[in-house]
Amino acid sequence: MGKTANKQMICEVLMEHAGADRDIIALCSDSRGSGSFTPFVEKYPEQFVETGIAEQNLVSIAAGLAKCGKKAYAVSPACFLSTRSYEQCKVDVAYSGTNVKLIGISGGVSYGALGMSHHSAQDIAAMSAIPNMRVYIPSDALQTRELTEALLKDSKPAYIRVGRNAVDPVYEEGTFSLELDKAVTVCQGEDAAVIACGEMVKPAMDAAEMLAAEGIHAAVIDMYCIKPLDEEAIIKAATKAKAVVTVEEHAPFGGLGSMVAQVVGRECPKRVLNMSLPDEPVITGTSREVFDYYGLNAAGIAARIKEALA
Fold it and tell me: Which residues of the chain have pLDDT under 50?
């Protein structure tokens, strides 16, 4: 599979099933274009709801449809879905146990030049703090496909964050199958354990390849399942390694790094270094420019691994 946007893959999977399953309903908050859901709207207009720029209504309507037996997919920019409609996500979806899948598009810093108002660097912490809410951040289109297929089979709430742009493949078709809520070991190594999620998995892989040429062997764990967190995978990787490095497109508080540190500190204490966005409004630029500026790239991750091992 070539370079594909994860949000596009979600739409494709839902379209494959919507014809036979009329209970599948997509909802957007004036985001059908940015969410890559225009093809769904054109093919299944009777299974689509447009709420306009009204994220709270979006979530509540989705929850109401779910209570009527529908499978609701609420698609909205992650920056707004995880903040403006936070109470509705908490009460109408999670507390009420409705079958709503919250699709946070353009997550992290992928809105680029629109700046802090459109960045979602707090959503892992916010959504993970809600009881009964699962949180997923897939790393590439193939994993997104498998995740979407798996979530179609259950009726529990979930928040799925995907970026805006096409991403490089991490996995190859025919060699990958997803086990829901189980992290994926991308590569093996016992010098360091790198635990990453979302778009940070690919540069973590590249960093491991760079270091292997220097005789440093790092395991890379794709923790796409933020909640429920695969603690067993963390403990297994951390126990073997001399140090642990986490990498995420998120603020330094309450995200993947904080969660991993809690598990490692409790089960197999050792050094944990967290790579994340800073606790400040990030610079304006494309995702790549932002990542490069803060060292969230292969070279930066490789340097951090060396620091962890020093």
Answer: none
